[in-house]
Design brief:
Order of helices and strands: EEEHEEHEEEHEHEEEEEH
Helix content: 25-40%
CATH architecture: 3-Layer(aba) Sandwich
CATH class: Alpha Beta
CATH superfamily: CoaB-like
Distance between the termini: 26 Å
Number of domains: 1
Largest sheet: 8 strands, mixed
Radius of gyration: 19 Å
Bound molecules: cytidine-5'-triphosphate
Structural class: alpha/beta
């Protein structure tokens, strides 16, 4: 991990997306970006070269070595991922990407909607699944990690569904109650279809800082294994 060639490169996304309605209004969510930021700090201290794609209204990492690039909307993040994905070994997708946004005809970026009597309707369209898109474009030596915030009673089942649908390597499943909380209890589940048959639980409920440390410790050897395996395959090809 000492030369530029062997230093593992981590791309993290974190925070909410803001989907504009007009010059002053948007549709957003409550994600703070704290977890992604903590992950970036721990990874940088553990020797990774880290780029953090960070949404609006979010904290900043403390480690000066972390490259921070800001985004606002799902579309901004989509473009940044296209640019940065080819240069990483592992992608951790912790951003809370909006599932819906106003259709283009509803958006007035230069003006402000006037109040009118009665109801107002804003038509929304689905956003693309960015992680699924990354999976289609990724190389086989890259490790893709997603998050699934789910109700506790169907945590594992829903998380496994997302692993398959998005065709990614690993998913961090955590119960809905941990959103906005200071502590977290989570499970890292591997995708057997991509050679990762594993389920690892956090040691009980831990702080988000300890969780960030824990997740980086789990991901580091898996990233190294994947790179070694793919390097071996290409040597034998
Ligand atoms: N995600 C993404 N693009 C989206 C929505 C989500 O890349 N448009 C990513 C998130 O960053 C996260 C994972 O997909 O890593 C799961 O996000 P989540 O909101 O839990 O799942 P959805 O795919 O939106 O599915 P659902 O709404 O059914 O829970």
């Amino acid at each position: 991990m000492t030369t530029a060639d062997t230093t593992p490169r981590l791309l993290i996304t974190a925070g909410p997306t803001y989907e504009p309605i007009d010059a002053v209004r948007f549709i957003g969510n409550r994600s703070s970006g704290r977890l992604g930021s903590a992950l970036a700090d721990h990874a940088a201290r553990a020797g990774w070269q880290v780029t953090l794609l960070l949404g609006p209204n979010a904290v900043r990492p403390e480690d000066k070595g972390v490259e921070v690039v800001r985004f606002q909307s799902c579309r901004d993040l989509e473009l940044l991922l296209q640019d940065h994905l080819p240069r990483c070994d592992t992608l951790v997708m912790a951003a809370a990407v909006a599932d819906y946004r106003p259709v283009p005809e509803e958006i007035d970026l230069d003006g402000k909607r006037k109040r009118k009597p009665g109801e107002m309707t804003i038509r929304l369209e689905g956003t693309p699944d960015l992680l699924a898109g990354c999976s289609k474009n990724a190389r086989e030596d890259q490790l893709l990690v997603g998050f699934a915030l789910e109700p506790r009673d169907r945590l594992i089942e829903s998380a496994q569904g997302k692993l398959q649908r998005k065709n990614i390597d690993l998913i961090v499943a955590n119960p809905l109650e941990t959103m906005d909380a200071d502590s977290i209890e989570a499970m890292l589940i591997g995708n057997p279809a991509r050679g990762l048959r594993l389920t690892i639980e956090t040691p009980g409920i831990i702080t988000k800082t300890d969780f960030a440390n824990w997740l980086i410790e789990q991901i580091t050897p898996l990233c190294q294994q994947r790179r070694t395996l793919c390097a071996g395959n290409s040597t034998h090809a």
